[in-house]
Amino acid sequence: MDMAKIGIDIAFAEQVLKQGELVAIPTETVYGLAGNGLDTAAILKIFKAKNRPFFDPLILHSNSVDKVLQFVQDIPPVLQLLADAFWPGPLTLLLQRKTIVPDLVTAGMDTVAVRIPNHPLTLDLLSILDFPLAAPSANPFGYISPTTAMHVQEQLGEEVSYILDGGACEVGLESTIVGLENGKPVIYRLGGLSVDRIEAVVGKVIVTAHSSSNPKAPGMLKSHYSPKKIFLIAPTADELSQYETSKIGVLNFGKWNENYLIENKMILSPSENLEEAAKNLFAFLRKLDAMDLEVIVLEKLLPETGLGLAMNDRLKRAAVR
Ligand code: TXA
Ligand code: MG
């Protein structure tokens, strides 16, 4: 099996991208599978590598608002407030696109998703490029997003020319996606920027991410972020009785309930800190998925506050078969 080169050589990454090839990039949320966002041939390679359906649009990444304004019409004032507060950071804005943006990026829609990610290596790379990077999460379509360079290597090592290794992602959840409807900000995907932090800047926002699936936004489809193994949330003892104890893996938020004796357990945050849990969530799910188990169990959903909302959203989708 061909493996991608892994390193921190930004000049090499630039060269690869200029040739129309793909590079995996670290961000504070998850690793992205990046290509020249203005080059249709490179974008086609992204869809092919991920086995991603063309109706699922991509996010364009840049390092400055000036660059963003080269491919969007404008940034409406209320969204500008969010950009000022949270860029670079885990916030994606849906903005009216300019015609320079290929249809393949937006799935033919008139909005384009844009983000300034907060990772020093990737910001350095973006600052020397004269095009934005289109980058979905660097996982096969429907699987758990990668939060380390090794996660990318394991699944897409044959598809990318280079993996820029920026260490483990600090936030660990994909960006929060915000657009505008009738002049009001709307959250389309819960993510690494919590609803509270957004509302502290622009007041009450509508969250539509939990509503039924919108075919134009599969990050919001019901089944997504899924391990290969059966994943159960708060199963009854009866449901669990069909599995041998040694074949049950358990994901738990914090303190361990001693009545619930199972061998293979992973604790997201011993001190029950939601940020720490978010940082560990995808990596732990992947670990459990790779172990010799028949089923992965989440003891119970996380608290519905802060990043708990976004984590519960991912966990519920991971449990859909
Ligand atoms: O944190 C992140 O956002 C990561 C890193 C790499 O930046 N990227 C990421 O990309 O999660 P992806 O492709 O896995 O998810 C992007 C989501 C998709 O669900 C897509 O449907 C939605 O953004 N999206 C993109 N453009 C859109 C648009 N114009 N309107 C509505 N949804 C859009
Ligand atoms: Mg994704």
Summarize the topology:
Elements: E1 5-7, H1 10-18, E2 23-25, E3 32-36, H2 40-50, E4 59-61, H3 65-68, H4 77-86, E5 91-96, H5 103-106, E6 111-115, H6 120-128, E7 133-134, H7 149-156, E8 162-164, E9 176-181, E10 184-189, H8 195-202, E11 206-207, E12 230-233, H9 237-240, E13 248-252, E14 264-267, H10 274-290, E15 295-298, H11 308-318
Parallel strand pairs: 1-8, 2-8, 4-6, 5-9, 10-11, 12-15, 13-14, 13-15
Antiparallel strand pairs: 2-3, 3-7, 4-7, 5-6, 9-10
Helix pairs in contact: 1-6
Magnesium ion (MG) binds near residues 145 and 219.
Find the CATH superfamily of the largest domain: DHBP synthase
The unique ligands bound to this protein are: threonylcarbamoyladenylate, magnesium ion
Assigned CATH architecture of the largest domain? Alpha-Beta Complex
Helix content: 25-40%
Straight-line distance between termini: 30 Å
Number of strands: 15
Decide which structural class fits the backbone. Answer: alpha/beta
- Topology as a string of helices (H) and strands (E): EHEEHEHHEHEHEHEEEHEEHEEHEH
Could you characterize the architecture of this molecule?
The protein folds into two domains: 203 residues, DHBP synthase, CATH 3.90.870.10; 89 residues, Threonylcarbamoyl-AMP synthase, C-terminal domain (Rossmann fold). Helix 1 crosses helix 6. The model has no long low-confidence stretch (mean pLDDT 93). With 321 residues, it is α/β, with parallel strands linked by helices.
Could you write a compact summary of the structure shown?
This protein is α/β, with parallel strands linked by helices and 321 residues long.
